[in-house]
Amino acid sequence: xxxxxxxxxxxxxxxxxxxxxxxxxxxxxxxxxxxxxxxxxxxxxxxxxxxxxxxxxxxxxxxxxxxxxxxxxxxxxxxxxxxxxxxxxxxxxxxxxxxxxxxxxxxxxxxxxxxxxxxxxxxxxxxxxxxxxxxxxxxxxxxxxxxxxxxxxxxxxxxxxxxxxxxxxxxxxxxxxxxxxxxxxxxxxxxxxxxxxxxxxxxxxxxxxxxxxxxxxxxxxxxxxxxxxxxxxxxxxxxxxxxxxxxxxxxxxxxxxxxxxxxxxxxxxxxxxxxxxxxxxxxxxxxxxxxxxxxxxxxxxxxxxxxxxxxxxxxxxxxxxxxxxxxxxxxxxxxxxxxxxxxxxxxxxxxxxxxxxxxxxxxxxxxxxxxxxxxxxxxxxxxxxxxxxxxxxxxxxxxxxxxxxxxxx
Amino acid sequence: xxxxxxxxxxxxxxxxxxxxxxxxxxxxxxxxxxxxxxxxxxxxxxxxxxxxxxxxxxxxxxxxxxxxxxxxxxxxxxxxxxxxxxxxxxxxxxxxxxxxxxxxxxxxxxxxxxxxxxxxxxxxxxxxxxxxxxxxxxxxxxxxxxxxxxxxxxxxxxxxxxxxxxxxxxxxxxxxxxxxxxxxxxxxxxxxxxxxxxxxxxxxxxxxxxxxxxxxxxxxxxxxxxxxxxxxxxxxxxxxxxxxxxxxxxxxxxxxxxxxxxxxxxxxxxxxxxxxxxxxxxxxxxxxxxxxxxxxxxxxxxxxxxxxxxxxxxxxxxxxxxxxxxxxxxxxxxxxxxxxxxxxxxxxxxxxxxxxxxxxxxxxxxxxxxxxxxxxxxxxxxxxxxxxxxxxxxxxxxxxxxxxxxxx
Lengths: 409, 408
What we know:
The complex is a heterodimer. Chain A is about 45% helix and about 15% strand. Chain A has 16 helices and 13 strands. In chain A, strand 4 (about 130-135), helix 5 and strand 5 (about 150-155) form a beta-alpha-beta unit. In chain A, helix 14 packs across helix 15. The longest helix of chain A is centred in the C-terminal third of the chain and has 18 residues, at about 390-409. Residues about 40-65, about 95-105 and about 220-225 of chain A have low confidence and may be disordered. By secondary structure, chain B is α/β, with parallel strands linked by helices. Chain B folds into two domains: about 5-290, 7-stranded beta/alpha barrel (Alpha-Beta Barrel); about 305-405, no CATH class. Helix content of chain B is about 45%, strand content about 10%. Chain B contains 17 helices and ten strands. In chain B, the strands form three sheets. In chain B, strands 1, 2, 3, 8 and 9 form a five-stranded parallel β-sheet that branches. In chain B, helix 1 packs parallel to helix 9 (about 255-265) and helix 13 packs parallel to helix 16. The model of chain B is unreliable at about 395-408 (pLDDT under 50). The chains are: A alpha/beta, B alpha/beta. At the A-B interface, helix 14 and helix 15 of A face helix 12 and helix 16 of B.
């Protein structure tokens, strides 16, 4: 497997998905070699901890609970959710500080450099199938598949259209499309994403399978309660504050809610390139004192915020899947999710809205806060429903796709 | 061999429009949707079925008989959107072979929450039926065939009715058969007709099901089953929308119905009777004891389709909590809106039981999810509550004129 994120090195859902999927495959007895790029400097990724110097020197990292999974890491500043612009800045600063490193200084080159190193690593390994997660690993996937003669599967966790709307980066789009075209099979995380793959990338529908993500249940109920007391309702936005996540719709809906109710606070937990814009916007709307920005939260703080929240809102403009609402439900928080998301395909017991329909978002936020039986019912059924979304099922579907691909080849 | 007693439930709810917490007006209902559904069902079901049954009645010169229970909520809609349906019902009434039953005008669950309101709605319905079809209903059926001993006692105490109808649920019958007339426990005069759910559902639900071992169901096969019945009466109770709406025309449901009477009447020991004729022709064979509420819904035959989750019970409690204030305020428009919100369908839409399996029920649900329907209902109820409090304030002489136009 070729990926670019793995816990604890995560900045979004991709790392969580790779972890869940590989862990479940591990349990199914599938041997996975996970090839991972690694940023050398952690200064620009405040939420990411680096490996210890010790493990940095060893080529393979072993996770205790993943017996069948071997990790290979490649030194690289690749970041899944960055733009070429930010990448360029990172490279320049890294170069300034780390003389002697040979970065080419261009995102496209970097992707291909990662591909070259992955190909080298792959030469030492035995495997039956190449499984590449998202565009940065597609060139590597193509190379490794070509060298080894093994079939290629590309797993689409998000597309350039999700991340950038209509302002797509042509280079990334080209890489994505080439990956999908060259792949024997394309796995989409939702029907929502599948339709983008077919309509925007011109890939034949027969080639595109849907495997929904699962959700990890990590020891809930055993965590110490923080015992935070509050007399206000808390509505939570949790995720990167970027165009894709629709922070402005959250704020506009907040404004509408506050016109009707007073004892409610809106918490935006996360960071991102629209963070400053969001702070400004809250001020412009005159609701600055009702909106709290926490910045990026570590998992412990996320746990605390879940404990305080009364409602989770995900107004994503285009969300290929969206694991976060499942985690919210796991923590007994009712959720409002946008219809433009993959997760709305698997969740019945959630309130669904069009991301642009701020009136309806506000209507539903107020309803949850005002009519307690709504939250009770959503929580009861939602939590039960999430239990049924298991990574094991996702892994089994992937394995079935592997088997079919291997037979076809 | 037996007497066949057909009774058809005819009902369409008044669906609410999308009503957010920001809406302030008192237009709660989706006129466009209600009109178009009413017209659609009229064209697919009511008109062709009425015509068919009228033909059959004429052909058999009084030997084919049926009964209807038509809700007030539907009659109002038909008058507005499809008045020709009313005249075909009237034509049926004139044949003398059709009986009209009594129920709550608003197809409500009011029996469970307010006996005063319940009786008022029954009376309103009876007046409407008498006005439109010239018959005073003598047999009562409660919404969704919800029933218990107390209901029977209450209906008997009105003195208006000879019989009551409910589901022939296994657990109330035990070893007994639904194919006889019974006496409700605690009643002296009132008789009880029980639905033969097996034969009724063969037509209403299973007719077009190709996985059913008896598919395709033909009129002579069904008549054969009737011939083998050991009992006085077979009560075939079903939604009228079975014809053309639940079972589409291409399933052959109309042809089945067209041929059924002659197949059944081939056996001279069979006949068709209206519920009132059943009551006159037979005596109760036993007493039926139903201490707990039952209905005709689902396998459970209980109230869980309307009151099964926290949202449903909250919504209906909040609704009936307004009764006193609303009746005190005495504004007819507010009372009517409040009553229209009592229609059981509003609570059925909030049911989470069927949600997962993409059930047939989904087809008849105007909402994407039970949660949406609850939110919508509660928003409307919130507005109604405000109007009611303002209406009460409006009773003060000084603000009376101001309040007339806009209750808000």
